[in-house]
Structures are given as structure tokens and as C-alpha cells.
Amino acid sequence: MDKTEFLTYLTDHNTEELSLIQGAPVLVALSGGADSVALLRALLERGIACRAAHCNFHLRGEESMRDERFVRDLCQRLDVPLVVKDFDVAAYQQTYGGSIEMACRELRYSWFEQERVEQKCALIAVAHHDDDQVETFFLNLLRGTGTRGLAGMERLSGHIWRPFLGISRNDILDYLKSVGQDYVTDSTNDENDFRRNRLRNIVLPVIEQQFPNGRERILVTMKNLASDRDLLANLAAQVLPDERHYSIKTLLSMSDPTTLLYHRIRHLGFNRDQCFQAVSAAQHEHSGRWFLGKDNYVMHVNRHTIDIEIEGGDNDVEIPIDLTHDVITPVNITVSSNNAPFSPLMCDGKRKVAFNNNVLRCERIVLRHWRQGDRFKPFGLKGSKLVSDLFADLKLDHADKRNTWLLEADGEILWVLGHRASALYPVTPESQDYLLLQL
């Protein structure tokens, strides 16, 4: 396609993404190679305010420095604000492991998002195109994947925007030639040390030779798979409508509960194998199993449901309450102030408890959820006990533990609501000034 067609395609096929920008700048991931340089030039030609971010991984010696100099000069000539970040890939691998490719990917995307927020950019634009899509198809195929992997990259994924999907590498080179723009070339692209390079340099040329228009047909297949993926996700949401709690009874009534669960929660970073293990635990009534997704999402298998929570999401929430009157939220507690003679029959120690009025002298009384390591002094026992041990004695599953509220006064746990009271602030038969709390 010529320059006009190129720029028209960019506008016509990114209408949704362009509407999200609304005058805010776009952060362009700028390596200095043909693809990213074309992306910056094209967005600028379409009147989109751009900022650029360049990663220097220092993996190619002087060539890495050459790329940085080129990017700095280009941004200066185009009057585009630029930020450059130096990375120590070896140190990152030593800490987190993984391949060089994976380390570089994790480092740059984490930094891009940080810069996007700090610079108040709407989106992060990266220059993936159709040739990259085909390579991704084969890489995922050889890893063993489902519709999500075979469907390839999405035009918009979170804050990552890929305006060039639907455009070929040749289209990009033609555009650069038409505007007289040079670029740098990564010499390692000709080496076959990496899997993607072997696909690009060895496998795909053979396929193209033996099957003319093979790439175009693969792209059609990927679009079909993307449609299947989206349909499965929509159907899964209809069967399991709750956003975070999935009925085990409903899951096990389906012909393939693993696939159903996977398409319901894959966007939270859970893989198919984790879903298989969760369903297997549910089938065998093994509650208590948990699995970690992305962004601190945790999947818990409980007695009747498989629940998704954000680890630590509400554990740190403390809700101050006033025990001089009834508590309405987050739970309903009736508070009675008594001066009549006390009888132990007035309490059950679980849903109805009593404390002497000295508790009202506490500076901070709060309701909160259980945290790992919480201890209290149970009424009727010597010494202290871990709240987690109490939960184990009661055979509570994870959902019940997370939903249980604790009454805390000046850092001491007084009541595990609905289960056990503390021996602190005791009320004796002779007591006449005390509080009765009923859940």
C-alpha cells in the first residue's frame, strides 16, 4: 500500500483506540528499528501527540549505544520528548530466572507502564504487525496452547496498543521509503540463536515457498480463532455469571468443567493446568487448594464454590466502630449496656458475648478480617491461640475464614465473631457494668 493507504488504514482500523486517547499523549516504544520508527512517524503524521521510551539492554555492545544515539537524534529532530532506561538483564535473570527474551520483555513492559502513568499517557503504542502475528501463531502452536494463544495478539490489551496489526512488514518498509526515513538494524536478527529468529529466517520462508499466500491464510485462521475465543468467553460468563464466585455444582454438571472455568478466568492470569487441578480438587472434595494468577489474583477451592480473590485485598481494611451504640456495618451487632447482675447464661460465647465496660476506654476499636499470625486469648483456655488454629478446629474453608470478622481493641483480638470470645475484659457474676454484644 502507498503512503496515503497506509495512513488511512491506521486511522480507519483503530477508531476505538483513537477514541480512548482524547487529547492525551501516547507513549511509543521506540527501539530505533524500522517498525517502531514507522509507528512514531505515522502517529505524528496523524496529529497524535507522542512521547517516546527507549530501552537499552546493553546486550550488543557498541551497537546498543548506536541505537540509543539514533533514537535520541530522531526524537530531537521530530521534537518528541524521550526517556531512556538502562537495564542490567543478567542481574534480573539471576534474581528471577528465565531466558534473555523473557527477561527483556518483563523489564521493558513493566517500565513502559510506569512511564505511562508518570507521563499521563493514554496508551503504550508498540509496533507489532502481521508478520509478528504469524510468528506468534507458530511459537504458541509449538508450545501447546488453545484458542487464546493461537488467536495471537490483540489490537488493544490493557494499555498496550498495537496499531499496525493488519499491516505487513513490507507495507512498513514502503512507508518509510516514501517519507525518506532511515532506521537502525539489529544484527542479531540474522542470527538463529532465538526461536523467533529460527521461525522468521528458516521455517516461514519454506512455508511461503511451498504454500503461496500461506501467511494470509494463517492470518484468516487466527481471526476465526479470535472469534471462537470471544464467543467461548461470553458463553462461559453466561453459565457462571458471578464475577468471583463459581458454583462447583454448576461446573461439575458441564461436560468439560476445566475448559469452562479456564475461559471464565483466563484473563486473570490462570492457565488451563491450574483450572484442571482446581476442578479435580473440587471433584474429590479437597477444599483448601489455591492457585496464583496475575496481579495477586488467587483462586481458592472451597466446599461449594471456587472463589477468586485479590490476595491481601481486604485484609488490611480496618473499620472503626463505636460500642456505645449498635453497629450497622460491616456486620450488624446489637450493643446493650447493662447494670443488672450478670449471668453466664446470658451469653453463648459465639454469637452473643459480654465484656466489662473498661473496653470503652480503648482508644481504637475496629472490625477487620483475619491475618496470618493473628493470636488471641480464648475464654476458658490458658494462654493464647492462633486464630488459624481455631479455624482449623472448626474445619472452616478458605471462604469462611476470609468472611469472618474479628473485633479488635487497641491491638488485642476480643472476639472472633460467630465463633469464640476472648478472655480479655472479663465479666464476672458480680459485675454490674458490662456490655452485651449480639451478632
Structure description:
By secondary structure, the protein is of the alpha+beta class. It has three domains: 153 residues, Rossmann fold, CATH 3.40.50.620; 71 residues, no CATH class; 121 residues, Phenylalanyl-tRNA Synthetase, Chain B, domain 3 (3-Layer(bba) Sandwich), CATH 3.50.40. The chain contains 16 helices and 20 strands. The strands form five sheets. A six-stranded mixed beta sheet has the order 3-2-1-4-6-5, sandwiched between helices. Strand 1, helix 3 and strand 2 form a beta-alpha-beta unit. The chain starts with a helix and ends with a strand.
What's a concise summary of this model?
By secondary structure, this protein is of the alpha+beta class. The chain has helices at 3-12, 15-21, 34-45, 62-78, 89-96, 100-118, 130-143, 147-150, 169-178, 195-210, 214-239, 248-252, 257-265, 272-283, 387-393, 398-403; strands at 26-29, 50-56, 82-86, 123-125, 156-157, 160-161, 245-247, 290-292, 297-301, 305-310, 318-320, 334-338, 352-356, 365-369, 375-376, 385-386, 405-409, 412-416, 420-421, 434-438. The longest helix has 26 residues, at 214-239.
